[in-house]
Amino acid sequence: VQLQASGGGLVQAGGSLRLSCVASGRTFSNYVMGWFRQAPGKEREFVAAIGWNGGSTNYADSVKGRFTISRDNAKNTLYLQMDSLKPEDTAVYSCAADRSRFLSSNRFVYDYWGQGTLVTVSS
After folding, report:
1. Residue pLDDT tens, the chain, 123 long
2. How far apart are the C-alpha atoms of 115 and 107, rounded to whole Å?
3. Within its chain, how far is the Cα of 110 from the centroid?
4. Phi and psi for 117 in degrees, rounded to 5?
5. Residue 43 backbone phi and psi in degrees, to 5
């Protein structure tokens, strides 16, 4: 499956952004989908994951209550609504697809990755 992320940009602290990730090539609804991010000089870290039908989600503690992951299988699109953004949320955000059906936070189990989209939060 091919993944294309978009929606990043520059926003002030406290602001909001919505990221999108469009999938093509295979049946989108067959995959658990996740968002990961990588800040400069740091390792890629888990942000959120969502089950194949959107009925289950998993969030990193650092974003819980501020970010919302969702999907529209009819549009083959994954979303990440980011509210109350903080400067420490600055990173390149990437979407990923996992065939295993588990909402894993482990980046190594994800099979397909999109290119990242840069989110910069100014203080």
Report:
1. 999 999 999 999 999 999 999 999 878 999 999 999 999 999 999 999 999 999 999 999 999 999 999 999 999 999 999 999 999 999 999 999 999 888 999 999 999 999 999 999 999
2. 14
3. 12
4. -125, 130
5. -80, 160
